[in-house]
Design goal:
Strand 2, helix 4 and strand 3 form a beta-alpha-beta unit. The protein has a 5-stranded parallel beta sheet with strand order 2-3-1-4-5, with helices on both faces. The protein is built from 10 helices and 5 strands; from the N terminus they run H-H-E-H-E-H-E-H-H-E-H-H-H-E-H. The chain has a single domain, classed as P-loop containing nucleotide triphosphate hydrolases (Rossmann fold, 3-Layer(aba) Sandwich), CATH 3.40.50. It has 278 residues and is α/β, with parallel strands linked by helices. 46% of the residues lie in helices and 12% in strands.
Length: 278
């Protein structure tokens, strides 16, 4: 994967995962398995190289301290949100990188509007923040499980578009990733969790209830992606049945985002040329 032409082809393949504003992404017709023209071992090598480049760019972003990046990751259960975040961020300088997870709102969170808890943990200048689940739960799970009336979640698409545009206008680049796992692969991973004492803690009975609502969740995701993929804040639908290619693809999306920002190291203080430390 070292040749320029191979890298260009990979970048083109990754770019094809971006959802064009206004398009409806029929998830059942989107691939859940893709090798991106490389073996598993090649994908692991590419991931390591890409992480090294992200590390350089992230440190420049942190030093520049005038812009930020928000990476949103959403998926069905067992698609690999935690594994993706761990593999993409492993080895990077923890300064300037933060991961935020969202569970059912409780306490003060439940006493405010649904975006209150989200806005308060958005990235500061110089940061890359990753959302493991996000404000999109408020047009997904609340819709599928009928926690709020239809009129409530339907109006939230506009709220979210405006919220993400606000972040963009104030210097945060928002990029959103849906990890597209197949129902068969989800079943395999659920069974693996149940059979492994080290992983069983991840499984809950509610996972099976949610799995029974697969068509409803897929429709909810399709609507959310169609309604909120914009030129400034795009969605990417990433095939997630292969862990190594999934991780590599998300890392490439983050790298490309940072490359386009092209953060720069601030100018050094004047008068440092020739200074000797004794």
């Amino acid at each position: 994967m070292a040749s320029g032409s191979a890298s260009d082809r990979l970048e083109s393949l990754i770019d094809d995962l971006r959802v064009t504003p206004g398009d409806r992404s029929r998830l059942s017709r989107q691939p859940t398995e893709a090798d991106f023209g490389m073996t598993k071992d090649e994908a692991l090598v590419r991931l390591a190289d890409t992480r090294s480049r992200i590390d350089v760019l992230q440190q420049r972003l942190y030093a520049e301290s005038s812009r930020s990046v928000l990476l949103v990751i959403q998926a069905m259960d067992a698609a690999g949100k935690d594994g993706t975040i761990r593999n993409v961020l492993t080895g990077l300088n923890p300064a300037g990188i933060r991961v935020e997870s969202f569970k059912a709102p409780a306490g003060p969170e439940a006493q405010h509007d649904y975006l209150w808890r989200v806005h308060r943990v958005c990235p500061r200048d110089g940061e890359i923040t990753v959302f493991n689940r996000s404000h999109y739960e408020d047009v997904l799970v609340v819709r599928v499980k009928q926690f709020v009336p239809d009129a409530v979640w339907k109006r939230r698409y506009e709220h979210i578009r405006n919220f993400e545009q606000l972040l963009t206008d104030e210097g945060t680049t928002v990029v959103k990733v849906f990890l597209n796992v197949s129902k068969d692969e989800q079943a395999r991973r659920f069974q693996e969790r149940l059979d492994d004492p080290e992983k069983r803690w991840k499984f809950r009975h509610g996972d099976l209830a949610d799995r029974a609502l697969w068509p409803e969740f897929q429709s909810a995701y399709e609507d959310a992606i169609e309604e909120t993929s914009t030129k400034a804040c795009p969605w990417y639908v990433v095939p997630a049945d292969s862990n190594s290619r999934r991780n590599m693809a998300v890392a490439e999306i983050l790298r490309t985002t940072l490359e386009r920002l092209d953060p720069a190291i601030p100018a050094a203080e004047a008068g440092l040329d020739g200074v000797k430390v004794v």
